[in-house]
Amino acid sequence: MTHIMRYMKRFPLVQTRMTKLFAIICHPKVQLHTYLKPPKANQALKKYLNSNCITEALLFFRELMRKSPSTIDSFSFLFVLKACTQKHSATGGKQLHTLIIKFGFEPIIYLQTSLINMYSARGNLFDAHCVFDEITCKNIVCWTALISAYVDNQNPRKALKLVWQMQMDNLEPDNVTLTVALSACADIGALEMGEWIHAYVRRKEGLHIDLSLNNSLINMYAKCGDIVAARRLFDGMKKKDVTTWTSMIVGHALHGQAEEALKLFSKMRGINKNSRKHKRHGDCGSSLIVPNDVTFIGVLMACSHAGIVEEGKQHFKSMSEDYGLKPRESHFGCMVDLFCRAGLLNEAYEFILEMPFKPNAVVWRTLLGACTLKGNVEVATEVQGRLLELDPGYAGDYVAMSNIYASKGMWDQKIVVRHHIKQRRSPGCSLIEVGTEINEFVAADEDHPLRSEICTVLKHLLINMKSFGWSFHRSYCWCFSR
DNA sequence: CTAGGGTTAG
User: Which nucleotides of B are covered by protein (CB under 7 A)?
Assistant: First the structure.
């Protein structure tokens, strides 16, 4: 054994080849790290990660665990955790957590933050929060990790509460925390909170305002109904990237301003052509902006909301032909929506059947909704059959069907469908105040179980009303009940 | 060698 060790010491180049052999002869407890020091093993892990070879990274780690556990240090876990977060395997993460405890690396804050991220990616907020609670000296980074965990898992209210709690803990939010918080505001249409954050951003000295923060601001204003403020910010930004452009295009599309959205899209492509020209002349190559698949969602949404079918079709084709982007399920969903809104029910139906995906309930429901509007019983019956297979418990589909039958005077069928609705949701009542300007609203009942749903409905209502150029100047009180 | 962030159909 000593001979081999000496040999390897003298000729480091043969080291890698020898390691395998060596590992087999040796008991794992032998101090291998003299020959394969942690930084080397970690660099290998990092290399796998950077080249997107996630499975290989995990396998490499497993080999290390088996053959030379002593080469593993706390940094190794950081890389492996990252790999594990990207790969959504169910048990791997928990096993890693156990190993971290076994190795005694539990109190290292870098690892704890990574663990929060890992649990969040699996939708396991309970364990994410547990890890957070165990951190003795909490810093801004682990707070932000937890906040973004709640945003990513559709609990923006809790996220905003945590931002508040963090400040109570004498920690000032930085640009990353604020970016996440703005995203939470956008989710619930909390314009007031968003504006407060914007004011904070401008007031706070030494705060680094970067692209992500600006993009998040644009998105917040657009989603909260103030498209003018969003556009003002967009026009004022010197540095823009795909996300900036995409956010603005989606914003206009949501507000029904299809023309503006499509104008922006062609302007964006114009920049592309110009900078390619510049690149040929040898300067200004860095500002190249290539639309991605999300950009096309915005473009298709714009076409759909404006009812321009032909242009929508063209963009859908151009997506894969000119940009090499493979349309995802949601792009096909946009196209179905495009046909439905234009009243082309048969075209929508055929499109769904030709999709390379198994159509989901949402897609069929879009078509069913259009059938309700058009009073098309034939297509609706067909669609309902599909929905019964996919999601039989959804009461809304029965309601839609019953409405279609009612509109055609087919009362017998209506009663049959109505009977299928077994559990009705309990009726609720909420009061919503709309102030002098229609870009803010408050749900009066703070603890109402449907509060967040009502706010979402209102948010969309508000966006739609604005797109029709409606505005209110008196104070309004609406009462919803069901 | 080290942890957190922005855009996504209905």
Answer: 1-10
